[in-house]
Design brief:
The structure holds three protein chains of three kinds. In chain A, helix 13 (about 260-265) runs antiparallel to helix 14 (about 270-305). Chain A has helices at about 1-15, 20-55, 70-80, 80-115, 120-130, 135-145, 150-155, 170-180, 185-195, 200-210, 215-240, 245-250, 260-265, 270-305; strands spanning about 60, 65. Chain A is globular and about 70 Å long. By secondary structure, chain A is mainly α. A two-stranded antiparallel sheet of chain A has the order 1-2. Helices cover about 80% and strands about 0% of the residues of chain A. Chain B is globular, with a radius of gyration of 24 Å. The two termini of chain B are about 35 Å apart. Chain B has helices at about 40-50, 90-95, 105-120, 135-145, 165-180, 190-200, 215-220, 225-230, and strands at about 1-10, 15-25, 30-35, 55-60, 65, 75-80, 150-155, 185-190, 200-205, 210-215, 235-245, 250-255, 260-265, 275-280, 285, 295-305, 310-315, 325-330, 340-345, 355. By secondary structure, chain C is mostly helical. Chain C has helices at about 1-30, 50, 55-90, 95-105, 110-125, 130-155, 160-165, 170-200, 205-210, 215-225, 230-270. The chains are: A mainly alpha, B alpha+beta, C mainly alpha. The interface between A and C is large, with 86 and 85 residues.
Chain lengths: ~300, ~350, ~270
């Protein structure tokens, strides 16, 4: 069988180099992907380019002034309100992504290494809450963390506190808790997938070569599962920076994020160029932060080895 | 029946098949044998119509097949993966191709049952495709192809996914089946025993070229070159010098075996005055006690490998550059021969064959 | 160390599941509570919040809109998803990775930025904001999910099955109809269900692109401002939760069935 499998592999290898065949294969593939690609270009790529263009223009009441300017970026990045919102959004998305990944890793590890035959049931169990209405999940957290909420009444009932705490709701930590809950599945799945790919005999080999469980984890399992950790980090960090619903419902005055400002510019304020500049700045800054986090993480893992 | 004329298939700079010429006769069990990447699968897929020659032509029954798509060729294939449709049961799989013929229901049913009986799967028609064992899947694939009554049945490594015992059993059955239906079978395999056991004729292929086409015995006993000899099993290669080259036979001088006159293989390529003579290890037999043979060599046992029913002896013969490999049955105690013992080996000069390097 | 880990990991897993499910389970609990204020201890059992629902015409309109949008978006997203997933799993073509990247991008971009970008272009094009624009937005965010569900369904597909069909005399179209489509059916249905669920739950796209129309999440958003309306929102949420759960269970069962098919095939090959 091995020889036969090598045969097909060699055959494919050969196929890859086949010029005339490649061309017909390429054109068929491109033709097939083109409707989806066209949709993505028209609905995503073009709009994003238009937004980038707008960020260099100025709003004049109901018309747009098309002269190139960096004024919007100056406002977006230096005006205290926007700068603070942006920094807070970054802080929140960073905390959420790190927290989510830290909490998710043991679960992914448990399912992958100890899930046994019930692995897919576990995964199903974990994805279910994620599929229920996002608005209502955020709402639930408001109910849990509120002044008369579940947590306060529970703590009161247990005699841990004397009067309901107001510290739980309407601040950054409420936003962080809610988002950590909301994005759990997005972190668990990629980590789980990369843990599944870790060849179990490698861990046995590390043990055989004298590594204890902690050292073999740090030197084999963790580095090999890094791709999953990194994609989990990115898939949580980047979208959460622009979350709108959570800060609006549980953030209060101290939990407002950049998305609320973006919405305001496209809504009531009707200042599209500023809204565009805020959007572009957010994307750029969060991408930079994501890149830095990935580099830092890689460095840390290399040190652990 | 099937003619492969000057067929070349290139993928970019790579020549998967290089100017292949082959004629496969009607009703023949023909094998394409070679290591992976030798072009045997490419050739089979071109006969089936899944690949097209870069140049050259393929004729089936005198009809050139260029431009005829796979679904209109009188060939059917048993895939390496069997390609059993998982969403259909056994019966539906077998009837898949018949559906297009618009037979009436009873005729279709009759043919399906006949095909299933032929591969000993009668009564399993309602079984789901995913509930079958490897051997059963293979039988369904066979029935599905044979029910189409093709002129040629193509088999792409059909036994490679089965375990050893089942594989040997299926070899016998495939051969029986081919004789029963009487159509041409073309088998692709990398297993020389499989090819030797089942085929009427074998084409041995290396690196996109057909090295030798002959009956199993001929291929095994008279390989045209060292590569073919090696691929089909163990062989002692002995350096020789050509003394006389007289048409169908040649005379060579060897170290150890002296002067030998041997048949010259049809495809023999002369390479100056140097030649190689080969003899299979089992064609050298140990002469026990005072038994004698017309032709014998003597040597010293330097190593011994035990394989159950046989023992492999490595024998150093004075004057020879390499020790000889000898396969001996254990009836007379070859497994107990002490190392260093001197033994005599008898041989038949006919077993020595000259071949190209 | 090892035994310690083995003992604590299941406990941690249990706690984590509790953390995931706690907020979700509060919805049905408070939706049958007589008090309008969601707090413990519960004041009594009632179904009145549910009984109110069918008599709220704004809710019924929003539900109807959501249904239309959901069906349209899931169909379109799945058709476009089939094209992309099939092209990516079956063919090699130049630019495959960047094209795949662009198609999957909405998965990782902040949804609000995708939404305002679309809003900007649609406004510039002078296209009015209607349910149609919501459908476009939902198709965009559903495609990545559809493509990943379909890709996993298509990947195990053995190409020799299609060759076998051609070998047995079937035409290209016949092969598609008799082999490809039936084998893909579970993945396709699963993609439809997942897309429908996403569309049904999505707030941001609808919020920016619906204009004056409402969908269920927009209706819920509007109700959240009034504390007194909370229980009926919770009742509605419970119904949505049950609905999503049923759809997703079906999707999961189908996906597993498709996987089992391709897996047994894989085992036969290995």
């Amino acid at each position: 069988m091995t020889a036969a499998a090598e045969g097909t592999a060699a055959y494919r290898e050969v196929r890859k180099n086949a010029k005339p065949l490649l061309q017909s294969e390429a054109s068929r593939g491109l033709a097939l992907v083109s409707p989806t690609l066209a949709f993505a270009v028209i609905m995503l790529l073009v709009p994003i380019l238009v937004v980038i263009a707008h960020s260099f223009w100025t709003q004049n009441y109901l018309t747009v002034d098309y002269t190139f300017t960096l004024e919007q970026y100056r406002i977006a990045l230096t005006e205290p309100i926007y700068r603070d919102l942006l920094l807070r959004s970054l802080f929140i998305s960073f905390s959420v992504s790190v927290l989510t990944v830290l909490l998710a890793y043991p679960i992914a590890y448990y399912i992958s290494f100890h899930g046994g035959r019930r692995k897919s049931l576990w995964l199903f169990l974990i994805t279910i809450p994620f599929w229920t209405s996002y608005l209502l999940r955020v709402m639930s957290w408001k109910v849990i963390l509120g002044y008369n909420g579940v947590l306060n009444s529970g703590l009161l009932g247990l005699g841990i506190i004397d009067e309901p705490s107001t510290a739980l709701l309407y601040n950054s930590s409420a936003v962080i808790i809610t988002l950590t809950h909301a994005w759990a599945a997005f972190a668990i799945l990629p980590i789980f997938v990369s843990l599944e790919k870790v060849d179990r005999t490698l861990i046995e080999a590390a043990t055989d070569l004298g590594d204890g469980p902690i050292r073999s984890f740090l030197r084999v399992t963790l580095p090999l599962s890094m791709p999953g950790v990194i994609s989990a980090l990115l898939i949580v960090m980047i979208p959460t920076v622009g979350d709108y619903v959570t800060p609006k419902l549980v953030g209060g005055k101290d939990g407002v994020m950049i998305s609320n400002a973006i919405q305001a510019q496209f809504g009531k304020a009707l200042n599209w160029p500023l809204g565009a500049a805020l959007s572009v700045s957010t994307m750029l800054v969060v991408s930079a932060m994501a890149a830095a986090s990935v580099l830092l993480l890689r460095l840390l893992v290399r040190r652990a080895r | 029946m099937i003619e492969i004329r000057n067929v070349t298939r290139t993928y970019g700079p790579f020549k998967a098949l290089d100017d292949a010429n082959l004629t496969i006769k009607e009703g023949e069990f023909f094998s394409l044998l070679g290591p992976s990447g030798c072009g045997k699968t490419t050739l089979l897929r071109m006969i089936a119509g899944f690949d097209t020659p870069t140049s050259g032509s393929i004729l089936i029954d005198g009809q050139p097949m260029g431009g005829t798509p796979a679904n209109r060729r009188p060939t059917n294939m048993v895939f390496q993966s069997y390609a059993i449709f998982p969403h259909l049961n056994v019966e539906q799989n077998v009837a898949y191709g018949l559906k297009r013929m618009k037979l009436d229901a009873s005729e279709e049913k009759r043919r399906v049952e006949e095909a299933l009986a032929m591969v000993s799967l009668a009564g399993l028609g309602k079984r789901g495709a995913t509930e079958l064992s490897g051997g059963q899947r293979q039988r369904v694939a066979l029935a599905r192809a044979l029910v189409m009554r093709p002129k040629v049945l193509l088999l792409d490594e059909p036994l490679s996914a089965l375990d050893k015992k089942l594989r040997e059993q299926m070899q016998v059955e495939l051969r029986r089946l081919q004789q029963a239906v009487g159509i041409t079978f073309i088998l692709v395999t990398h297993d020389q025993y499989e090819a030797l056991a089942m085929s009427d004729r074998i084409a041995v292929m290396f690196g996109g070229k057909i090295a030798q086409v002959a009956a199993p015995k001929e291929i095994y006993q008279r390989p045209v070159n060292r590569q073919v000899a090696d691929f089909l099993g163990g062989m002692n290669f002995i350096k020789a010098e050509i003394v006389d080259d007289a048409g169908t036979s040649i005379v060579v001088d060897t170290l150890g075996f002296g002067r030998i006159k041997t048949d010259k293989p049809a495809a023999y390529v002369k390479n100056g005055s140097a030649a190689t003579v080969g003899i299979r290890p089992e064609r050298l037999r140990v002469l026990w006690d005072d038994a004698t043979a017309k032709h014998e060599v003597a040597g010293k046992v330097v190593a011994r490998h035990y394989f159950g029913e046989i023992t492999h002896l490595i024998v150093e013969v004075p004057g020879m550059d390499k020790p000889l490999s000898v396969t001996e049955t254990n009836d007379f105690g070859a497994d107990d021969l002490p190392l260093g013992a001197t033994i005599r080996l008898g041989y038949d000069p006919d077993a020595l064959v000259a071949m190209a390097d | 160390m090892k035994s310690l880990l083995n003992r604590w990991l299941p406990v941690y897993a249990g706690l984590y599941i509790a953390f995931l499910y706690l907020p979700v389970l509060l919805l049905p609990i408070f939706s049958i509570n007589t008090s309008a204020v969601p707090k413990f201890p519960l004041s009594g059992y009632t179904l009145k919040w549910y009984e109110e629902l069918p008599h709220t015409s704004a809710l019924l309109d929003a539900a109807w809109n959501s249904l239309i949008v959901g069906i349209a978006a899931s169909l379109l997203a799945t058709i476009l998803g089939i094209c992309a997933a099939r092209a990516i799993t079956r063919y090699r073509f130049p630019g495959r990775r960047p094209i795949n990247g662009l198609i999957m991008a909405p998965l990782i971009l902040p949804e609000i930025i995708v939404a305002v970008s679309m809003l900007l272009v649609l406004q510039r094009m002078g296209l009015g904001l209607t349910l149609f624009t919501v459908v476009l937005g939902h198709v965009l965010i559903c495609i990545p999910y559809s493509v990943s569900v379909l890709t996993s369904g298509f990947e195990g597909f053995d190409r020799s099955l299609e060759e076998a069909s051609a070998d047995l005399g079937e035409t290209a179209w016949g092969t598609f109809r008799r082999v490809t489509l039936p084998m893909m059916a579970p993945a396709i249905i699963s993609s439809l269900l997942v897309s429908f669920t996403i569309s049904l739950d999505d707030f941001i796209m609808a919020f920016f692109l619906a204009g004056t129309e409402t969908t269920l999440p927009i209706y819920i958003w509007g109700q959240l401002r009034f504390a007194a309306k909370l229980p009926s929102v919770l009742a509605l949420g419970t119904l949505l939760l049950v609905g999503s759960f049923i759809l997703l269970t079906i999707a999961e069962v189908l996906r597993r069935r498709a996987e089992r098919r391709t897996q047994t095939m894989g085992m036969a090959i290995a």
